[in-house]
Predict the 3D structure of the following.
Amino acid sequence: MIELSLTDILSFLLLAARWTVFLSAIAFVGGGVGALLLLLLRYARPRFGGRFMPVYVEFFQDTPFLLQLFLIFFGLPKLGIDVSPLMAATIGLTLYATAYLAEVWRGCVDAIPRGQWDASASLGMNFVQQMRDVILPQALKISIPPTVGFLVQLIKNTAVTSIIGFHELTKAGEIINNATFQPFITYSIVSLIYFAICYPLTHWSRRLERRLTPTGHR
Amino acid sequence: MDPQINKSAPMIELRNVSKWYDSFQALTDVSLIVNKGERVVICGPSGSGKSTAIRCINRLEQHQSGQILVEGVELTQDFKNIELIRREVGMVFQQFNLFPHLTILQNLTLAPRRVRKMPRGQAEELAMRYLTRVRIAEQAHKYPSQLSGGQQQRVAIARALCMEPQVMLFDEPTSALDPEMIKEVLDVMIELAEEHMTMICVTHEMGFARTVADRVVFMDKGQVVEVAPPAEFFANPKNERTKLFLGQLLKH
């Protein structure tokens, strides 16, 4: 057992928390772009995109994220592609985020009444114009709570990447615990750091949701 | 392909148009010619295919056989062709379908700016002109949900007019309105008719049909049953189904 000061523990954990934030941010942005592409494909080319998206989404929603991570981390090297824990974590979380965000946003786009498509089409607008000026601005508003909800989920799920040895917050907590044998204090601090990252997001989403509602609009 | 618009052709022509939803046949051999400046009212019981028929004219619904020509240009699968035709065909819907996230003014300027590439100032000028025409200019900076149903429908008419279409399609424009608001919408439509706008209206407002229409089309079970000038249509309907329909209307 090694004696470590609270400051030592805290700084070690906070440095590792940077990787949690970094990984979440990359996966969220990458997943957002991926989801948007899947969605555009689905609505612009229903014959192909409408079939491809559900298959993709089902696969990632109905298998454990840990197994998806194992497939990438242990599977890809067998195919001759060498992946670091960071690489595997990034790819895994991005593919996973793509599936969930695509599904969340599809629900939001589908919630926009058919009349909005009809009216914009009847004015001669093409698909891109309809999406950009009519459908997405309305879908965006209703998508904020579930999207931020998912982001919080994603941040917490980065903890799973500690299993393949990626050095993020949870992994750092494990290292500290192995050195100090003080699981209660260590994991309390780890939890508090996760809370400190996630709570402001939830709070901010509520504020943003209110601001995007035009005055007098239901 | 750049379809040539033929100025001497009828405004709208349907030739033996048929449409199916799976095995249900929604339209059967519908043929109709609407000339420039003509006002046509389509009526019939619910489920008779009236809305489907006019939604086919601007390709909100796709027909499976027959031809639809707008100013002599046939509607095809081609995106460019569909968008070109939609610029010439304005439409007003039962549920108004205003864009709730935009102000009234933005609702009107969106399509002219995006589709016609009109500069913002010019589009706003045009929009204010049409809003004044439908007597709602003072509401320009409000959102649709702040307006009454009748006001929203007048905005919807102005929005369609901003694209300066050759034809206006009305799909039961007064059916979702409270009775006291029907007149303000019909008055705008009557004014439009007096300016010789080519119009096709699906409506249950028989008073409107009587005073405004050049011809009344009666549809039932996806077919055109009878076409006649209103005087003849109401006084002397030829088909049994038309008589039955008019009889039921008069009972109310």
